[in-house]
Amino acid sequence: MDTSLRFPGETKADVTVVLPDGVIYSFGRLPLSVSDISDVFPGTVDFPDGRSYPAAIKVCKDPGNRRFPDREQQVLREFYDLVERDPEYKFFTHTLPRPLGMFNVFTEDVALPASALKMARGYTSEDVRLFCRGAIPPVQVAWMLTRLLTTLATAHQQGWIHGAVLPRSLMVDWDNSKGHRYAKVLGWGGALKKGEVLTDMFPDSYQFYPPEVFQKGTATAGTDLYMFGQTANFLLGGDLNLRQVPESVPAPLRGAIQSCLIPNPHRRPHNAADFLLKVLRPAFLQTWGTPKYVDFNLPSVTSANS
Question: Is 257 found in the same domain as 185?
Answer without folding.
Answer: yes
